[in-house]
Design goal:
Blueprint (H helix, E strand, L loop, with lengths): L5 E5 L4 H12 L3 E6 L4 H11 L4 E3 L5 H15 L4 E4 L14 H12 L60 H5 L13 E4 L5 H12 L3 E6 L3 H12 L5 E5 L5 H15 L4 E4 L14 H29 L2 E6 L12 H21 L4 E8 L5 H7 L4 H8 L8 H12 L10 E4 L6
Parallel strand pairs: 1-2, 1-4, 2-3, 5-6, 5-8, 6-7, 8-9, 9-10, 10-11
Length: 432
């Protein structure tokens, strides 16, 4: 860094940010420090140590406050050469006991708070549709149907939920397997699939139905497509329940969970497939577009996992499959928001797998590459894009939804009873 460069450092008063600020000051940078509410004293101490004249308070979860802080920094430093997002907010606890307010705060500070303000371009258009409208109000909550309020399991203390003692002589493979070991596939098991009205979600639902599973299918708004997906399940002689709603709403996950218990008495597999894509360069992304992506693609996975975990713990077994994307492993230009949410889903999968393995629950993810669905039609329709990616794919073709469905079956079945915390890439060799 050149001496005299202008740098904005967030999270002042926290160890990481303070170390960065001191290192930049030694290199001759001019600093502007931003600190979280309640950390003014620690931030001012760092400001004195580094010779910084300004240390302002800012809540990174408030987009307006972030923009104001950046404007103050630019005015104070007469420009800006470097932005260091070093703010940290941590909330610990088992996923199914984590309060919604704690989850949202971490997302707002760690993910949304790192989004730089976009330029004030009033000509920029709104990207993407509004979130789907709920079809109907949820019914009354049934007592004892758990999984949505973060209650402690009877007979288990909070500390035991992290490290439950293993039973000597017990076959962990059998406990951790969701699929039957008798060769009947998923006969009479209950499977929840979100975003199941078309594309990958519909293919996954049909694959489980062929293997004998009963299904609860979620869809956002396309009732006709959802009815067709349910009819295809029933054509295999299996039962099917439809639940409409955006997975970005916490209550929808609870309704899916209750629907499975009321119809089938259990939950064996959860496939978090629902997702959206709203491409655009980061500087032009609107706040509502960013939050819609985080709400559906990331929060929806959290809500779904939290809703079913207590039931799976009571059963002593279960499998969760989260559909991520290769964009979460290798970002793509114009998809910062999509890549951020899918990368977070992968991190969630790996952490949750360690958390719930002692209870016999496996958690894995699928990272599809280019699959021929409506979601990627517009992207591959851009001039030269389809041919370029075809040539770059070792198998020389794009995938189909049924191939992703096969991966979901594997990760939920007894065949993968010793696999957890894994990300299975289904990309034809494009991302290896």
């Amino acid at each position: 860094m050149r001496e005299g460069s202008a740098a904005l450092v967030t999270g002042a008063g926290q160890p990481l940010a303070d170390a960065v600020a001191r290192r930049l000051a030694r290199a001759g940078a001019r600093l502007f420090l931003v600190h979280l509410p309640g950390q003014e004293e620690a931030a001012q101490a760092v400001a004195r140590d580094t010779g910084t004249t300004a240390a302002v308070e800012c809540d990174p979860a408030d987009p307006g406050a972030v923009r104001s802080a950046v404007r103050q920094a630019v005015a104070a430093l007469d420009g800006l050469d470097l932005l260091v997002n070093a703010v940290v907010h941590r909330a610990s606890g088992p996923a199914h006991l984590l309060p919604l307010s704690d989850w949202q705060r971490v997302i707002d500070v760690e993910l949304s708070g790192t989004e730089p303000p976009r330029p004030r371009d009033r000509r920029s258009r709104r990207l993407g549709p509004r979130p789907a409208t709920q079809e109907h109000a949820p019914g009354p909550r049934r007592p004892g149907r758990g999984g949505c309020r973060g209650r402690i399991l009877p007979g288990l203390e909070r500390s035991e939920l992290h490290h439950r003692p293993r039973v000597a002589g017990q076959r962990r493979a059998l406990l951790m397997s969701a699929g039957s070991t008798s060769g009947d596939g998923f006969r009479d098991q209950a499977v929840i699939v979100t975003g199941a009205s078309r594309g990958i979600g519909r293919a996954i639902a049909q694959a489980f139905a062929r293997e004998g599973a009963d299904l609860v299918l979620n869809y956002a708004s396309n009732q006709e497509a959802a009815a067709a997906a349910a009819a295809a399940v029933e054509a295999h002689g299996r039962r099917c329940v439809l639940v409409r709603g955006s997975v970005g709403e916490p209550e929808v996950a609870c309704r899916l969970h209750r629907a499975a218990l009321e119809a089938f008495g259990r939950v064996d597999v959860l496939v978090n497939n629902a997702g959206i894509r709203r491409d655009g360069i980061l500087m032009m992304l609107r706040d509502d577009t960013w939050r819609e992506m985080v709400n559906v693609n990331l929060n929806g996975v959290f809500y779904g996992c939290r809703a079913v975990l207590e039931t799976m713990m009571r059963q002593g077994r279960g499998a969760i499959v989260n559909v991520a994307s290769t964009a979460g492993l290798r970002g793509r230009s114009g998809q910062v928001n999509y890549a951020a949410t899918k990368g977070a889903v992968i991190a969630l999968t790996r952490a949750l797998a360690q958390e719930v393995a002692p209870q016999g629950i496996r958690v894995n993810a699928i990272a599809p590459g280019f699959i021929e669905t409506d979601m990627v039609t517009d992207f591959l329709g851009r001039a030269g894009t389809r041919q370029a990616f075809l040539e770059a794919t070792p198998l020389g073709r794009f995938g189909c939804p049924e191939e992703v469905a096969g991966a979901a079956l594997y990760l939920a079945s007894a065949a993968s009873s010793y696999v957890t915390g894994h990300v299975l890439v289904v990309s034809g060799g494009l991302f290896v």
